[in-house]
Amino acid sequence: MTKVLKMSSSSRQTLTREADLDFDVGRVRADFPILRTRVHGHDLVYLDNAATSQKPRAVIEAISRYYDCDNANIHRGVHYLSERATADYESARKTIQSFLHASRPEEIVFVRGTTEAINLVAQTYGRQHIRAGDEVLITAMEHHSNIVPWQLLCEEKGAKLKVAPINEDGELILEEFERLLGPQTKMVAVSHISNALGTLNPIATIIKMAHAIGIPVLVDGAQAVPRMPLDVQELDCDFYAFSGHKAYGPTGIGALYGKLALLERIPPYQGGGDMISSVTFEKTIYNKVPHKFEAGTPDIAGAVGLGAALEYLNDLGMANIAAHEHELLAYATDVVSAIPGVRLIGTAKEKSGVLSFVMDGVHPHDIGTILDQEGIAIRTGHHCAQPVMEWFGVDATARASFGVYNTKQEIDALARGVEKVRKVFA
Ligand code: PMP
Which residues constitute the domain of residue 85? Predict the structure, then answer.
């Protein structure tokens, strides 16, 4: 692993902790069958990882093996296959627990993804604790899925959504955030890494500030889980939400971490099978945590696939992945920002994985379409973060986002593609 570029000493220490000199991107690429796809006569250059990442063979095979050998419904069966399926599902929960460094598997609730995890917290903890006149504090860089669930809750309760502002680099203004924390604040919800800007928020400091006055914190970890080593106990967050499909796992599965004592105190999210311990028409006794939050038959194969994905990431080493992606981001920042007419959106000192930009006189959709002709997949649009786009005075950006299998050669291809766009519109 070559050195990490342009980083503060504190993040350098985190990201290179335990970094392994053997991270071999060529070997990593060989694990992803889809990377052999040819697109319009070119090798695929997949730079849309913040939207969803590709899946290694280990994940595809784990799902297929589950259906080949173990498929049955879980928890309720006494037969051989049901026991195997239950063991697979619960073992995936343990993998997530250890990946996040949660203290117990009961603290991991399977959900469809980040969106469902945040809605779950808003509709359970939120409904239980937030009253008229209370406030929920988020930041100006949130994804819609960390805005709208809180708006729904605030509307229902007559509470207020407060938004901590960002500066011109797309960094949270911490003093303003702290100023907005007050006696009315009942919940803080913040993204760990912004999907639109790449900003890596000082999440540990945010949590300390909120806890200093007894306010719980939900972290939207959709972009952080695939990108950096995590320890929810060290962070001391109350809830942590993420999606499997951005972390090299399948779509339709994700997890919510919650501190056990909190999960035990809050009501169920949905009613149905598996979330109960007994039902009569007069009274239902709920199952224990985490099953209390997992009504109905879950995506068992998805959980198995997610477990395989996190094991795969563990084998690569999260510190290696963080260092690799940081190097790609530093390189991409240099080469793309050097192209005349390009303006980066999001220039935080602490960034990860995402390069958002606009070009003079060119709509981002045209950038995306021309790059696609070169086999390069990026995302264009508002990235489900319209308020932050508005703050920067743009409707949309072009966004390249990096993953474990990307290379500097692919970034060179991106830069050549962006140059071509410039010439087309010159
Ligand atoms: N938060 C962030 C920061 C995201 O990047 C995304 C996905 N783009 C989400 C939340 C929502 O994730 P999902 O659609 O998988 O629920």
Answer: 60-314
